[in-house]
Amino acid sequence: MAAEDLFKNVISHAKEYGFIFPSSEIYDGLSAVYDYAQLGVLLKNNIRQYWWEAMVRLNENIVGLDAAILMHPTTWKASGHVDAFSDPLIDNKDSKKRYRADVLIEDHVAKLEAKIDKEVQKAEKRFGEAFDKEQFMSTNPRVLEVKERSETILKRMARSLEAEDLADVKALIEELEIVCPVSGSKNWTEVKQFNLMFGTRLGASAESAMELYLRPETAQGIFVNFLNVQKTGRMKIPFGIAQTGKAFRNEIVARQFIFRMREFEQMEMQFFIPPGTQKTWYAHWKEARLKWHLSLGLGQDNYRFHDHEKLAHYADAAADIEFKFPFGFKELEGIHSRTDFDLSRHESFSGKKMQYYDAEQEKSYTPYVIETSIGLDRMFLAVFSASLQEEELENGSRTVMRIPSVLAPYKAAILPLVKKDGLPEISKEIVDALKYDFNVIYDEKDAVGRRYRRQDAIGTPFCITVDHQTIEDQTVTLRHRDNMQQERIAIAELGQVLQKEVSLSSWLKKLEA
Ligand code: GAP
Fold it and tell me: pTM score > 0.85 for this model?
């Protein structure tokens, strides 16, 4: 299936099976805001829990926090978000549409690069089996020319943005003759910076109300609580504070479904370390986070690191874990070596000491920080899009979601073969026996084959079918989602099988193994 169709399929499947709906859909929705439906909320909770337990339960030097979304406005001056958390925007005067200037340029480059793909496809056809892609990419003059053009454009854009030379960003758009995708015209306004934070007000009267922001990242709630947690938890460096929660960004270009949202959820962990040890800990967390991703079994080839060459002013190293989404490799998680920037800034803006007394070194210092930051919704999209598969069978085809079983919304479906002869009653007894440990579902509607397909389509790893033999020997059919194999197993053994295959504890043990 073409990438575009695959992505459309992901979006429609998410809606059709009750995972994700557009927000306030009866009013035609709200751009880049989504609601998680009955199955979506289960999957999302399971992803959050797998992250949380891997961070907080498995690491004895990491504790949790749930800071408020609303924070004192000075927080965002100290963090640099008031001055620097912005995107360059440009309007087309004819269509009145607003774009991110850097995205217009990047899209132009992506079109150039698509030409390379075409050249490769043509050559593949021409040379057949003898085709050596690597050699072709490094020697073909047309490919080399396009590559060089793309690099020159991106370098110039990066230079201009860094130097805040917005006039040059516009000049570049004009030189490249980029047209508005809606009006087709080149009638552009100047490029302006647009702050991404959502403003709001605290207080009832206009005079006394305080201007606030909805937090654009959860990290600052951790930084401002650093000493509170360290002292009350008697934490010794190195230690970490983990947090999950909503963040808000007024994204100019919000598209690609739940990849870039205006209201989204982050799962972040700040790890406080002695200055000078940041290289070691940065490498440690890069490896640990990749291991967490790979433990889910979505395929090693779906991940790659992208090390940042251009660093934010507060970072001395940064990398993204990129995932192969249906629209290509894109950032899923960031790992940042943030130095002592945040704590130092909060110290100077608040006038309160943010230092740690290190009894071993017998001195106080401002700790350095390694941050791991992943978007929960992006992780949802990664899991969802990699799991959704169309499979050809001997007698037709099926849609199956190979969701890692620890994350699956339901762990098992209990299905009486027919709605009579006492089979529903036995099935409900099985539900009652399992439901305290596992999220299971009972379904008696339609033929059993259709019920299997429905459970495949929502990612349920096991179907447990109760039939007439069950009455005689207390066994059921256990059907495996991934290979559709069926085995006969005693009701008394079901709990053990589920415990081994789908429970959080057995997946956490595998992660640590
Ligand atoms: N505290 C660091 C920080 O916020 P970031 O790279 O801006 O860094 C971290 O964001 C992660 O949050 C990203 O890797 C991505 O997974 C997620 N994220 C950022 N903006 C998002 C958006 N508009 N919609 C969904 N997820 C987003």
Answer: yes
